[in-house]
């Protein structure tokens, strides 16, 4: 009888450990986060290093189109317009090394953006390629 109870207990323990292992491996599942709008969220590298996220959306390219130069708002993290975003650049590389996909969120809740024509879309795309692809 003691052997049956011990065997059942070991089977139950093994099953629970297996379940916990599977749950632990799925913690970073497909969770995404927006980064770039709060000064208390830490650096991009710190966000990715938590292991909680599979995707990080850099927020936001919030001004573009109608012949205007696109603008990224990264709140208090850095100012891309002044070339002062090396910390974000380094953070992107750090995230990529960890297997976290980094994307740019275009638009946002508050912004000044629209694409008026195919030529306008090409200009925005050219700006993104020439100025942001180097970050990614």
UniProtKB/TrEMBL annotation:
GO biological process terms held by the UniProt record: chitin catabolic process; polysaccharide catabolic process
Alphabetical list of Gene3D superfamilies matching this protein: Glycosidases
Family matches, as PROSITE patterns: GH18_2
Catalytic activity: Random endo-hydrolysis of N-acetyl-beta-D-glucosaminide (1->4)-beta-linkages in chitin and chitodextrins
Hydrolase found in the keyword field: yes
Leader sequence segment: 1-28
Cellular component annotations (GO), alphabetically ordered: extracellular region
Superkingdom as given in the UniProt entry: Eukaryota
Domain GH18: 29-136
EC assignment: 3.2.1.14
Regions crossing the membrane: none
UniProt keyword Cell division present: no
Pfam families: Glyco_hydro_18
Swiss-Prot/TrEMBL keywords: Carbohydrate metabolism, Chitin degradation, Hydrolase, Polysaccharide degradation, Signal
UniProt-recorded Gene Ontology molecular function terms: endochitinase activity
Name the UniProt record assigns to this protein: chitinase
Native source organism of the sequence: Thalictrum thalictroides (Rue-anemone)
């Amino acid at each position: 009888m003691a052997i049956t109870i011990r065997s059942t207990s070991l089977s139950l323990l093994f099953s629970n450990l297996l379940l916990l292992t599977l749950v632990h491996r799925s913690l970073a599942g497909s969770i995404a986060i927006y980064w770039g709008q709060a000064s208390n969220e830490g650096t991009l590298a710190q966000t990715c290093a938590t292991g909680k996220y599979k995707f990080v959306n850099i927020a936001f390219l919030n001004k573009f189109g109608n012949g205007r130069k696109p603008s990224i708002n990264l709140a208090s993290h850095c100012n891309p317009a002044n070339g002062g975003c090396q910390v974000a650049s380094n953070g992107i590389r750090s995230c990529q090394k960890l297997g976290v996909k980094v994307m740019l969120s275009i638009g946002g809740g508050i912004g000044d953006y629209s694409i008026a024509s195919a030529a306008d879309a090409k200009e925005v795309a050219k700006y993104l390629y020439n100025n942001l692809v180097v970050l990614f």
